[in-house]
Amino acid sequence: MVVGMDESKVGVDEEQHYDISSDECDTPAGVLSSKFDKTDLSINTNPLPHGKYTLIGLDIDTTGRRLIDEIVQISAFTPEKEYAQYIMPLMNLNPAARQRHQVRVITVGFFRMLKSMQTY
Q1: What does UniProt give as the signal peptide span (predicted)?
Q2: Bigger pLDDT: 25 or 4?
Q3: DSSP code for 12
Q4: Mean pLDDT across the chain, nearest whole number?
């Protein structure tokens, strides 16, 4: 059904016509649906124009997947350069995060620092 337009003036094939009157969603929460809006033309299928492009890979490591977890490392890689920066978290790392990143928090007096478990 086309709303607000005269259907006789709209060139819609029968194959492309679909019913949007149903508000129910039969897809369970957390599952991607294979249904999509056929009128969405925002997908650009044209290839990129010829030019000089640089591919950059990014990686962000966190202490976990919860909302209170923190970023502990940001790294980027290009064919010519690479960058990695550790970030001192406010809280001590949990055992799983220490093992995954091979770092531990060392406290010396009033100072805290990250120490690599590979070189310590």
Answers
A1: none
A2: 25
A3: -
A4: 71
Q: Which residue has the tokens 């977890």?
A: 69
The domain of 78 spans 57-116
3-class secondary structure per residue, 49-92: CCCCCCCCEEEEEECCCCCCCCEEEEEEECCCCEEEEECCCCCC
CA distance 12 to 43: 20
CATH of the domain at 91: 3.30.420.10
HSE on the CB side for 93, CA within 13 Å? 28
Phi, psi of 104 (to 5 degrees): -140, 160
pLDDT at 55: 86
